């Protein structure tokens, strides 16, 4: 499986505000690039923190891209994946609508009633890990289901865990021309943080996009 992390951050490295309310950091061209990246992926993944904060759809905006996927024999939208150890995804969340297949990655600690409720609303549930989703096992199961190209949009907790497990192949970050600030505002990689061994990146590209900069890296060494 090839895993690409893509996110947008402010000039001071924040993904959103301390209230965890989504803000538009990207401009029109960057959102279009994100739509293309989604179109090229088998699945788009977020953590449940992002579902609770943003209620994203994770589907394609451009109907032409949906038609092109169908012409290739693929579903109109990539599948959606939510890392949700305890099943906190609300049953009426947009990621559970009928626009695409949705995988819910849960841990063994998830209550059976909640899991059943998610299956009833059409989610495919994958159990991996005791208290928290074991990402290595869960992504291997997704790969077994034909997900070869995975795009991860965030948030910071999930992105850190994926780096910690050595699961990220590429990172692209749009840096917007704004400052958000706030010690409690989410950053690109939150979690515990690394203290000794740090993932090594190789810079592939620097491009001006909208009123910001798109930075692209290949991950050369896991933590
Ligand atoms: N600017 C951007 O490009 C993006 C911004 N965001 C922002 O990020 C914020 C949400 O980020 P976070 O609070 O960090 O939440 P998150 O979206 O990273 O979800 C974290 C949650 O995922 C679950 N999870 C299950 N297994 C996990 C594992 N192995 N490792 C880590 N998490 C696991 C846990 O319940 C954890 O609390 C929101 O404010 C949202 O607006 C989110 C995506 C993109
Ligand atoms: N690439 C990017 N730029 C921004 O400025 C953003 N705020 C985000 N947020 C992510 O996009 C998701 C919204 O998805 P839908 O449009 O609802 O499908 C949101 O949940 C974040 O993952 N991304």
UniProtKB/TrEMBL annotation:
Its EC number is 1.1.1.302. NCBIfam families: rib_reduct_arch, ribD_Cterm. It comes from the Archaea. GO terms for biological process: riboflavin biosynthetic process. It is an enzyme of class 1 (oxidoreductase). Belongs to the HTP reductase family. Residues 55-80 are annotated as: Disordered. It holds the Pfam family RibD_C. InterPro entries: DHFR-like_dom_sf (IPR024072), Rib_reduct_arc (IPR006401), RibD_C (IPR011549), RibDG_C (IPR002734), Riboflavin_Biosynth_HTPR (IPR050765). Residues 2-215 form the Bacterial bifunctional deaminase-reductase C-terminal domain. This is 2,5-diamino-6-(ribosylamino)-4(3H)-pyrimidinone 5'-phosphate reductase. Pathway: Cofactor biosynthesis; riboflavin biosynthesis. Keywords: NADP, Oxidoreductase, Riboflavin biosynthesis. It comes from Halomicrobium mukohataei (strain ATCC 700874 / DSM 12286 / JCM 9738 / NCIMB 13541). It catalyses: 2,5-diamino-6-(1-D-ribitylamino)pyrimidin-4(3H)-one 5'-phosphate + NADP(+) = 2,5-diamino-6-(1-D-ribosylamino)pyrimidin-4(3H)-one 5'-phosphate + NADPH + H(+); 2,5-diamino-6-(1-D-ribitylamino)pyrimidin-4(3H)-one 5'-phosphate + NAD(+) = 2,5-diamino-6-(1-D-ribosylamino)pyrimidin-4(3H)-one 5'-phosphate + NADH + H(+). Transmembrane segments: none annotated. One of its GO terms (molecular function) is 5-amino-6-(5-phosphoribosylamino)uracil reductase activity. Homodimer. Residues 62-74 have a biased composition (Basic and acidic residues).
């Amino acid at each position: 499986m090839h895993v690409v992390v893509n996110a947008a951050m402010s000039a001071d490295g924040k993904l959103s505000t301390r209230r965890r309310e989504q803000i538009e950091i990207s401009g029109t061209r960057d959102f279009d690039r994100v739509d293309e990246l989604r179109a090229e992926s088998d699945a788009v993944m977020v953590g449940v923190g992002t579902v609770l904060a943003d209620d994203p759809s994770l589907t394609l905006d451009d109907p032409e891209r949906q038609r092109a996927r169908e012409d290739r024999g693929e579903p109109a939208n990539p599948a959606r994946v939510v890392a949700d150890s305890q099943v906190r995804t609300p049953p009426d969340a947009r990621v559970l609508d009928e626009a695409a297949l949705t995988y819910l990655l849960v841990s063994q600690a998830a209550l059976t009633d909640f899991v059943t409720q998610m299956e009833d609303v059409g989610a495919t549930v994958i159990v991996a890990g005791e208290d928290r989703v074991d990402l290595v096992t869960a992504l291997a199961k997704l790969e077994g289901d034909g997900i070869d190209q995975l795009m991860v949009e965030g948030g910071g907790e999930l992105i850190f865990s994926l780096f910690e497990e050595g699961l990220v192949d590429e990172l692209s970050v749009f840096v917007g021309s704004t400052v958000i600030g706030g010690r409690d505002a989410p950053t690109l990689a939150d979690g515990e943080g690394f203290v000794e061994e740090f993932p090594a990146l190789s810079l592939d590209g620097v491009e001006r996009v909208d009123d910001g900069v798109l930075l692209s890296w290949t991950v050369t060494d896991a933590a």
